[in-house]
Amino acid sequence: MPPRPREKQPLPSLPTGPLNECDDIVTDKIPQDTYEPDDRPIDIVWRNVVVFVILHSVALYGLYLCFISAMWTTTIYGILLYQMSAFGITGGAHRLWAHRSYKAKWPLKVILLICQTLAHQNSVIEWSRDHRVHHKFQETDADPHNAKRGFFFSHMGWLLCKKHQEVKNKGKGVDMSDLYAEPLLRLQHKYFLVLMPIVCFVLPTIIPMLLWNETFMNAYCVNILRYICALHATWLVNSAAHMWGSKPYDKFINPVENRLVSFFAIGEGWHNYHHTFPWDYKAAEFGRINLSLTIINLFAKIGWAYDLKTVSKEMIEKRVTRTGDGSHEIWGWGDKDQTKENYESAVIYNKKDE
Ligand SMILES: [Zn+2]
Ligand SMILES: [Zn+2]
């Protein structure tokens, strides 16, 4: 598909919205009270509350079983499924489909779809719509998990209440035609309510029972624990990675760099970078904790992942200087952020005059 011309999206208001390279910074002050969420009454969806309470209770019991009766193979298997499902979200729904930051051949797409269904965070089409709206209208009422409503809302509260009308309105305007054009995604979307229970709950429970004679209770509860842990890892990107950390690339937005989130969400916690350059398949600079990147690069080696889009070092440096909060680490000798004092006081052995 030929690249589509960049849609000129009216920015919510400079400088709180995502800045593009051509935008002028109108002030150096970071506005604190722009786009405060409106005070609409929260319409709780009690069915979801009950489902999540039950799932969390079973997950806690699964954790208990890991220590008292589950076989160690079941626990290792649970950790493996956690990583697989996380990659279905990070490498699949997020970097491949929501952001189109790289391309994949069909065998990789099938693997990613299985992993993404294993993660059960709705179909890829639904996940990507929410995520594109999140990026385009971040931290306004149109953002499905607006972090301005607090940690709990952006973490999981947004799934326990009805969507804000603005989310629905703006969501309709987001182009999803590229994803609807993919037969595999249409198939997953159409049969999600059949595929999801099989891939996310039935098979992961049956496999340990058949292969190493695990009990139903252990296999079932440890799998629910795996599912809930992966959900929280993803949710941390929307909550913690919008709150606690540095902003080396753009201090005018709330997403931050958070190492701990990157560890649990296999590379997705470098969120200030990601919101600044959402088309970069690395979702971070090189050299960060980023298991998703390692896996995508492995697939790239066999040709299944290709057209990997990234941002040049020059562009990053330009952006760090222009809008960063000054926390960007220096890359070494001669970096523009190296202080004059450090530069002048360095001891240089075997120095030759050139
Ligand atoms: Zn975000
Ligand atoms: Zn994203």
Automatic annotation (TrEMBL):
What InterPro entries does the annotation carry? Acyl-CoA_DS, FA_desaturase_dom
Name the membrane topology term: Multi-pass membrane protein
State the Gene Ontology terms under molecular function: iron ion binding; stearoyl-CoA 9-desaturase activity
Main subcellular localization, coarse class? Answer: membrane
On whether Zinc-finger is a keyword of this UniProt record, the answer is no
Q: Which cofactor does it need?
A: Fe(2+)
**UniProt-annotated location(s):** Membrane
Fatty acid desaturase domain residues are 72-278
Q: Which domain of life is it from?
A: Eukaryota
Give UniProt keywords alphabetically. Answer: Fatty acid biosynthesis, Fatty acid metabolism, Iron, Lipid biosynthesis, Lipid metabolism, Membrane, Oxidoreductase, Transmembrane, Transmembrane helix
Question: An example Gene Ontology cellular component term from the record?
Answer: endoplasmic reticulum membrane
Q: Which GO terms describe its biological process?
A: unsaturated fatty acid biosynthetic process
- Asked if the keyword Iron belongs to this entry, the reply reads yes
- Transmembrane stretches in the record are 49-70, 76-97, 191-212
- Swiss-Prot/TrEMBL domain comment: The histidine box domains are involved in binding the catalytic metal ions.
> What is the protein name given in its UniProt record?
Fatty acid desaturase domain-containing protein
Provide the species name. Answer: Dendroctonus ponderosae (Mountain pine beetle)
UniProt lineage: Eukaryota, Metazoa, Ecdysozoa, Arthropoda, Hexapoda
